[in-house]
Amino acid sequence: MSRFRHLISIDDLERDDIEHILSKADSFVEIARGEKSSGILEGKILANLFFEPSTRTRMSFESAMKRLGGEVINLGSVEASSIAKGESLADTVRVVSGYADCIVIRHYREGSARFASVVSEVPVINAGDGAGQHPTQTLLDLYTIKKEVGLKNLRIALVGDLKYSRTVHSLIKALAHFGAEMLLVSPEALKLPDELKENGSFAECDLEYAVENADVIYVTRIQKERFPDEEEYRKVAGSYRITAEMLKNSSAVIMHPLPRVDEISYDVDSLPNAIYFRQAFYGVPVRMAILTEVML
Amino acid sequence: MNVLTISKIKDGTVIDHIPSGKALEVLRILGIRRGSRERVSMAMNVESKKMKRKDIVKVEGKFISEEELNRISLIAPDATINIIENFEIRRKFRVRIPERVEGLLRCPNGNCISNDGKEPVTSAFRIEKSENLVFAVCMYCGKKIYEIEEYLV
Fold this sequence. Notes:
The complex is a heterodimer. In chain A, the strands form 2 sheets. Chain A has a 5-stranded parallel sheet, sandwiched between helices. A 4-stranded parallel sheet of chain A has the order 2-1-3-4. Chain A has helices at about 15-25, 30-35, 55-65, 90-95, 110-120, 135-150, 165-175, 205-215, 230-240, 275-295, and strands at about 45-50, 70-75, 100-105, 125-130, 155-160, 180-185, 200-205, 215-220, 255. Chain A is α/β, with parallel strands linked by helices. Chain A folds into 2 domains: about 10-135 and about 285-295, Rossmann fold (3-Layer(aba) Sandwich), CATH 3.40.50; about 135-280, Rossmann fold. In chain A, about 35% of the residues lie in helices and about 15% in strands. The termini of chain A are close together. The longest helix of chain B is centred in the N-terminal third of the chain and has 7 residues, at about 25-30.
């Protein structure tokens, strides 16, 4: 019996639903690595409806589906589809739900995945709705933390754009379930909105303190377009950059939802602290857990 | 002595204890606007023991469903309803905050799917109360509305 039919927002999940998915993901790691094979989703078809660009999310869903024996169909480019002719999202979803057993959707409008779940005949998984939700990213972030350092007594520093990053907002809500202590490191203009501090334990600090005291440093990209001029952006972005030198005496692990621009220097990649590529890999077993949850 | 300036109705619905100045919004919530055929009388800024100043709306010849009346609680949480039959009060009750309203409010988030004119979508909001504050949460994008009357459709 599935715990949920659709996965739209991390807010829809209770702590035990999250724990269920995380422990289920554990059982898929070897299959995700290609060390074991599985045909658990044989005969099932996943439809990827990506109205916005994606590399990791789309490909890791494909990899997850294929390694479990299922098939994947893709919308392809929006310009080459009926959407270019003015077809509504509702009609696209209704049509595609007749072709597949599950829909993964990324769309530029907030609330689009929820709406798709209302009109779809098959389960819908939200792979990002504008500035809204991206619950599978949150689940893979939690899984990475659980695997690498554990979720108990966690002290995590969130670094960068805490104002606009949907990844950070969802992660904060999820971490509140686990009693994590959250250190906030951001420029003044990109501070975490107060309404997101309703649940959980928060403290503001600088990057140096975070590197010395946190178990996990979760870095996000500071976007150029958030600043009035490029000079201002360069000044701010440079002061939130993680380097190998900075991590000399630190045991904190470094996470990043990727893609990175220059917020983590390449010399960090070879350090044991760097776990962001493993984090991207964990997207596969976590998405396997989600796909099997909604389709079986 | 204060004299109420609108007369009694024979059959219909009286909405009392509306916060002063909100009577027109109450009519909007009930879908009564230009071109509507209901006979409506309204008193604004009348004296009230409980509220100092209040508005009253009387809708004659029409019994409004409880579900519709409960929508009034979004802007007038203390409103009382009197159902009148043959000049007598048949039933009296306070509005209750509905759990959900559809098609009544517009989401302030311009990028919310519920504002996409191309889609066959009706706005839907969950109504929540925190202490004395009533607010609406968009069921699509999660945006919260505190100034509810500003977003009535």
